[in-house]
Amino acid sequence: MCIPVPLYHCFGMVIGTLGCITHGAPMVLPGESFDAAAVLRIVHAERCTALYGVPTMFIAMLDHPQAAGVDFFTLRTGIMGGAPCPIEVMRKVIEKMHMTQVTIAYGMTETSPVSFQSSIDDALERRVSTVGRVHPHLEVKIVDTAGRIVPRGQAGELLTRGYSVMLGYWADAARTREAVDAAGWMHTGDLATIDDEGYCNIVGRVKDMVIRGGENISPREVEEFLYGHPKIQDVQCIGVPDDKFGEELCACIILRSGEQATAAEIRTFCRGRIAHYKVPRYVRFVSSFPMTVTGKVAKYRLREQIAGELGLREVEAA
Q1: Residue 27 reports pLDDT greater than 90
Q2: Are 280 and 265 in contact (CB under 8 A)?
């Protein structure tokens, strides 16, 4: 369905759904759910200039069989956010989808709209590997488990404060106090680093960190590495219970269409290239990931699913 709009600059969005404003100035309204084939058809037919979405949506479009016949030349810009974006995916969006001015944004529902965003003027390496710099009128800091600010470049929990931070969770004062401290800092639960030039890199979630026999493993670090495997379309790494080490790493992999692989092949690809304790003990090949309504991967559901399939249970504390 299209509606007439004033001649604004062309703009578009794919946020769990689809929409775009085209050269002729009609607007394609968002659909009820994301459909990669529908997005590709609309981009081609309506000559969209911008797309918004989470990384899994762009991955689905890039690897869809119809992508080869789509003219992406009119695409120019957009925003990728909602979840950490693999560097290789960002590069492909720029190169194959012609989105040379795409940027990455970072934020939360509780800190709407966003806290960090890259700029179209940033060097390509910055745009593909970071979420940019802090938005105006906001404060951010990276702290360790004791709440102390860490040195530049060191990982810790990202906290943000300012106009964008929510007042609180509806009728839930206890949860509000857990999320927003007395000084007004929102504890995001995300692990991040900020370099000397102010660029932020989200390296994982505090609760997603896998602790294997005392060694901390960032799932995102292993995911980024596995995206370099030519047969892998998408991958999510999770921690599953283990009687000896407390947790073990499991790589859940969606292969590219027509490809086949074995768990041994994936582990061989890892050995000698990443630390031995980061090589996934378990490798599961799946056709899809459980998703939230906004198109993000629901890792907690994935953990439950895989642990159940493997017959693993949480190790009881002594």
Answers
A1: no
A2: no
